[in-house]
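Sample 3 of the quickstart, ligand arginine:
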Amino acid sequence: MSDKKSANAMWGGRFSAGPDAIMEAINASIGYDQKMAAQDIEGSRAHAAMLVACGIISDNDGAAIGEGLLTVLSEIESGKFEFSTALEDIHMNVESRLTKLIGPAAGRLHTARSRNDQVATDFKLWVRGQMDAAIEGLTELMKVFVGQAEAGIDMVMPGFTHLQVAQPVTWGHHMMAYVEMLARDRSRFVDARKRMNESPLGAAALAGTSFPIDRHMTAEALGFDAPSANSLDAVSDRDFALEFLSSASICATHISRMAEELVIWSSAQFRFVTISDRFSTGSSIMPQKKNPDAAELLRAKVGRINGSLIALLTIMKGLPLAYSKDMQEDKEQVFDAADSLMLSLAALSGMVADMRPNPEPLRTAAESGFSTATDLADWLVRALNMPFRDAHHVTGALVKMAEDRGCDLHELSLEDMQSIEAQITDAVYEVLGVDNSVASRISYGGTAPSQVSAQIARWKAALI
Ligand code: ARG
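Result:
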């Protein structure tokens, strides 16, 4: 018996030799799954309480297990706990320590349970916590962008397509575009959280258990909406991790787009925004430099988050039901992606809260590139009842004339304009100014300050 135990204390029964060192190295997950210690202990305490309530273990054993687990938790939290690679993972490390603390009663904890439903439960609890953190982080970030929008409701800036000046928009409108993107990110986490909130605990190895357990009780104790309905599915499902990663990937994609704009906008060529010193770095050789490193790193983080998603999709692809050890490779991907996402949300919030838009360069750029040419074409349609295609043509000719003379549209004289379209009157000059241009875009969701104020009011009410 003692020989067999040295093979492995948990399953030594059928083994005559311990694992090869390389086997131990490839098999062990304790190096990273210790991150789930609190969830493991929470799940075990709920399981033990249920075993007592269902008359499967005694009150005394249940109490010893419950208290012993709290001791283990405090040892882990205070850094006193010695994790052992030989014990493979967090589940066996905790149980082994519990055995040392309370003796044979610890051996009853694993009744009607397997590491398969245990790890699924722990990991779900961990991922659920990260979904909540992402929802909170996104809410904060949205508030920061709404604040920026409010400060520049009618601050004119160029709107771009193809990164070429297209039409004037407002700073407020651009900031609120980000809010919409982040709102969709947030709703993806909210949806995923609802869908994943079923408890795998009690599915046991794969087939359920012959013990008279109460899965509803553990589900409720752990904050799940219900026990999962099929034990095979319960232990082999990692959709919750995939949904976390896919939601994180889309969110990180958005963050990288925002970050890229900050990099461009803060450059000396644009000067649209000033990024605070708190979120910039200098150069070790060029004394004049102020680099937007945080924005660049935010632009890059999506690489590892997307990588995690592809890694886990690939790990799960083709796995037969139910549990396979392949699934142990799920955790590092999610841990790394979650750390990257939370850090990104916090860094972007800080940067955006500090950032200052520069009204002058924004306005100058908005006035460049014949940005009100569409307003001119629209005026020809409205005032002269011209078909839009003809108006487009006339406007094109006027733009060419201005370009040849090196001036802006509003700098062309009325005579010049009339040489191309005789019916043009000096009322046209009203639509050529950028303020009038943005004020006129009153269609729902448009850039007019009246529309942007409505968007801001709606989000301020929703984000309280
Ligand atoms: N460390 C394992 C994992 O993360 C726990 C489950 C092990 N189950 C098993 N049947 N070997 O997946």
